[in-house]
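pasting for the record
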Amino acid sequence: MAQLIKPPPVFVHPEWTQSNMTKYSNAERERAAAERLVEESKRLVDETQTRTDHTQRDVSKKFEQRVDDLTFWNKELDNKLAELSNEIDSLLAFKTRLEKAIEACFEPLHIAQQCLENRQKRRGIDLVHDDVQKELIKEVESIQGVIALLRRTLEQTVEQIRLDRKAKYQLEKDLKDKFSALSIDGHCSELRNNSASIRYKEGSTKIETNSVTPADWEGFSNANIEYAERERMSSVQLRSIIDGVLQQTTNDMLKQCECVNISYQKRIDETKDTKGKLENHLARVFAEIKEMEENITRLKKAIADKEAPMKLSQTRLDNRSNRPNVELCRDPVQYRLISEVAEIDASIDALRERLAHAESSLKGLIRNQLDLEEDIDIKANTLFIDEVQCMGMRKSVNIQHF
């Protein structure tokens, strides 16, 4: 079924007028609101621009301050690092001195020990615990003590170098971080609104969990510098101690070496003097042996010379015993012959007794000769050991200051 077409609404004149007035009023209200919004927007733009400019100037100023702070601490760390590096180099040089000093101790120690070993080859009565022996033992103990002291000092030096390098590493790490921060902040301070590298970075305003306060930041570097300075001062003090130890130990070794050499010279002179006296006595014993041998020869000859008179006297007595009868008279001749035989017997007994004494004395002289020759040989062996072997080696001892 077809719909009927309705005619458009028809308004009266007052309605038309009211409609126009309403539109006029709405338009005016919107225009006024827009004008206010425009003015307020202009004012807000100016205010935000001013505030942004002020904030950027403040940020730039703080960047400058931060760069100055970084530059200051960078310089402080760099200066301390240079001081510590120089101190490590100096301590390494002292370490080398200690190592050379320890190495130089082994030759005098070996020579002293070799001297003691050589002197054990002395023979007989010369194997005596004399002043040389005492001074050599003292020298060995002294050098061993010096080596032990130098090794302990070297251990302390190695440990101090380790601590110095630890402090140096902390300074270098801190300095590296400071340099990186200085590069970053320096670059940031140079960025401008028209820089090509600026961009939006979402989440850039968050505070990192591992960030620190300015006080902590400054305290960290200050602590590194103070720690480095403490270790540097410890190193300086240790170098002073090392210098004193090297000086004292060298002086002690030189003094003891001189004491040993003086004792050796006295002992050598004493041994030479004793050997000379023994040789003089040996020469006199030789002369006395020769004279005693001649004396024994004379005594034997004298005893032999008594055989003929004894035979003569006994033969006469035997012949006179054959006198016949009353001629067998005990006349003076008979008594004298009997006394002659007794005298000759007494002389022979006296000569034989003296010969026995002479031969005993000769044996004693020969024993003394052998004893003297043995003792002279012992003294010669001692002189060879002390003067040739030991003092020959000791001439090569070179104790020097390191």
